[in-house]
Amino acid sequence: MMGRVSLIGHRGQPLSFPENSLEGFRHVAEAGAEYVETDIHITADGIPVLSHDANLLKLTGKQIIISDHSYEEIKDMSAGYPERFQDRFLDCRIATLKQFIDLVKSWPDLICFIELKKSSLSYFGDKAVDLTLRELESALDQCVLISFEYDALQYAKDNYKIRMGWVLPEWSAENYQKALALEPEYLFVDVDYCPQEQGELWNGTWQWVAYTINDCEQVGQLAGVGIELLETDNYSELKQICKNIEVSNDF
Fold first, then answer.
1. Which residues partner with 37 through β-bridges?
2. Where are the domains of the chain?
3. What class has domain 6-48+100-248?
């Protein structure tokens, strides 16, 4: 293996906790994570909250479109992902980005990838970037803004001093040229279309991140390709399982 492999707590640890819950992020931070990733949608009154989906059905069991409701309307809803966890996490709530930032400040070396989702950008336009960056201001050195949406990242680059990562919508020559122009610090690639051989990764100033990896065989394979940051849904367990294999010596 070349270099060092690090795992990223993808949405916290959603195999053990409701995804994007403060409880999940606290768990992986206490387990020694160097990196976590979360997702942002924005309420009707402009509050960035942690959710992968624009609809809160999965987390709350209710058909709630985040951008159609104020934070006040959703803040007290149980968000324990009942379909997966039944009543185990009834006390979970939809966290705000501010609450997340206040939490991660307890681990000042923890790097946080903040993914701004397309639906909020469609609803708010560039203001979605402004609202998100406002909440990150107090911990900017810990944060990396990421998105599939190239134009939003370009806007952030033109208007803010923030590290960025582009989540590739597809593997193509056109997107390689766009990456060269944007110069993100990180490029995220879906493991399903990630190159499988050394030398196939695009050359650039960025660091590669692959998602989502939940077993040691994939860790070894992607480390061999040259990808050193790997998102996982099962941070603490995968770290423990892999700690004695060669590719994981630097965990």
1. 10, 113
2. 6-48+100-248
3. alpha beta
